[in-house]
């Protein structure tokens, strides 16, 4: 009874990632599984997230369907792992973010946890972000607490960078007297994916090859980096509410000359790399090693640009620390389930801006 399942579906809306892990006496990743989100379902999720004409029925139907899909991901993971389900203490489900508005006091992740509990017969813990928001925090990023728990090193300053739909980082000074810092740096893959789908017809720019074929448009990059989010001090978090196609189209419309599609892709990759690099440069660390995780770790062009902008930091992936970059976020939600089950705080108040440490999540018994 000491195993936990983590379920993650991020802003990229590419897949449901599921892991089976244990945290005591030490971390161990036992099994992993990914269930793709079909393009039509992705489209329906994005339409709901973007809706201005709200339908409670449409919301309810997707909440239910995603709850069932999360349960399927868990049941498939359990079968693949060969583990007896009675050994599993709880599932930690992030849910699918439909809206993230900590400025208005709410954040909304859907995928009915009651249905997950019903269809897996496992205790399901969900809705991790809202307690932090209720305590005055951003409700995001939540992964830094897990990064600290797993990746802190007393002999080296480290930065963990998660490049998902959005990108976020965790600063881990070797000196435990120094604070852990964590925040969203801005867009990760989300704009790259959308522009690529529109012009290349594929879900993402594999290895960043198309972006690498273009030339960075200096005016577009400068206009994008002038968005106040980039220079705002932490705590800060962001989402598709800000960095979306409308945001990009507005910037392009204001240029004296429209860049080619490939040049826009190159500029978007540069934006992600520059905004991450500049955030790392400002951290109070000495020659940190940067460990990348999330799907962006597969984007060779993006990583090359990050290396270019961070010549004094060694850049590698979390695989070097024993956890493959594809599974870090799902593992973090398994860890949050473990924290909730054992009544330990899941947030870092200094990161989210909450009034204090809080036990996160609502528990739906088996
Ligand atoms: N081989 C690859 N080349 C380039 N980008 C990739 C590759 N594999 C994954 N990605 C990117 O990673 C994204 C998924 O990252 P992920 O960490 O799952 O984000 P999220 O947490 O938002 O779901 C994809 O949408 C894509 O942009
Ligand atoms: Mg994903």
Bound molecules: adenosine-5'-diphosphate, magnesium ion
The count of strands amounts to 13
Helix vs. strand class: alpha/beta
Radius of gyration: 20 Å
Pathway: Amino-sugar metabolism; 1,6-anhydro-N-acetylmuramate degradation; Cell wall biogenesis; peptidoglycan recycling
Pfam family, one: AnmK
GO molecular function, one term: ATP binding
Binding site for ATP: 10-17
How does this model look, in words?
Helices cover 40% and strands 20% of the residues. It has a six-stranded mixed β-sheet. Strands 10-9-8-11-12 form a five-stranded mixed β-sheet, sandwiched between helices. The radius of gyration is 20 Å and the shape is globular. Strand 11, helix 12 and strand 12 form a beta-alpha-beta unit. It is built from 14 helices and 13 strands. With 366 residues, the chain is of the alpha/beta class. Helix 11 crosses helix 12. The chain has two domains: 175 residues, ATPase, nucleotide binding domain (Nucleotidyltransferase, domain 5, 2-Layer Sandwich); 179 residues, Nucleotidyltransferase, domain 5. The structure holds adenosine-5'-diphosphate and magnesium ion. Adenosine-5'-diphosphate binds next to helix 6. Magnesium ion (MG) binds next to strand 2.
Main attributes of the structure:
single chain; 366 residues; alpha/beta; Nucleotidyltransferase, domain 5; 6-stranded mixed beta sheet; 14 helices; 13 strands; 20% strand; binds adenosine-5'-diphosphate; kinase; ATP-binding; ATPase_NBD; phosphotransferase activity, alcohol group as acceptor
């Amino acid at each position: 009874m000491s195993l936990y399942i983590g379920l993650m579906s991020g802003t990229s809306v590419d897949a449901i990632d599921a892991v089976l892990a244990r945290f005591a006496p030490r971390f161990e990743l036992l099994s992993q599984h990914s269930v793709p989100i079909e393009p039509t379902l992705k489209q329906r999720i994005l339409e709901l997230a973007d809706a201005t004409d709200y339908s409670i029925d449409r919301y309810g139907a997707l909440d239910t369907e995603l709850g069932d899909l999360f349960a399927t991901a868990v049941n498939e993971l359990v079968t693949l792992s060969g583990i007896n389900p009675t050994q599993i203490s709880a599932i930690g489900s992030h849910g699918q973010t439909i809206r993230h508005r900590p400025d208005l006091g709410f954040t909304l992740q859907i995928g009915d946890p009651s249905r997950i509990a019903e269809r897996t017969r496992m205790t399901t813990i969900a809705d991790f972000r809202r307690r932090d928001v209720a305590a005055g925090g951003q409700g995001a990023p939540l992964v830094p607490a897990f990064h600290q728990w797993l990746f802190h090193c007393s002999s080296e300053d480290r930065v963990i960078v998660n490049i998902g739909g959005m990108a976020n980082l965790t600063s881990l000074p070797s000196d435990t007297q120094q604070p852990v810092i964590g925040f969203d740096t801005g867009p990760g893959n989300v704009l790259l994916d959308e522009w690529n789908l529109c012009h290349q017809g594929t879900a993402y720019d594999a290895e960043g090859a198309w972006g690498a074929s273009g030339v960075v448009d200096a005016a577009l990059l400068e206009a994008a980096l002038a968005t106040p989010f980039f220079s705002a001090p932490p705590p800060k978090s962001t989402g598709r509410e800000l960095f979306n196609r409308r945001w990009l189209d507005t910037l392009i419309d204001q240029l004296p000359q429209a860049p080619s599609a490939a040049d826009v892709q190159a500029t978007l990759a540069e934006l992600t790399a520059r905004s991450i690099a500049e955030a790392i440069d400002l951290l109070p660390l000495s020659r940190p090693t940067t460990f990348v995780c999330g799907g962006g770790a597969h984007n060779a062009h993006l990583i090359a640009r990050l290396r270019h902008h961070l010549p004094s930091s060694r850049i590698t992936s979390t695989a070097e620390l024993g956890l493959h970059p594809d599974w870090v976020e799902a593992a973090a939600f398994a860890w949050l389930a473990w924290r909730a089950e054992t009544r330990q705080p899941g947030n870092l108040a200094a990161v989210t801006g909450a009034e204090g440490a809080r036990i996160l999540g609502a528990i739906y018994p088996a």
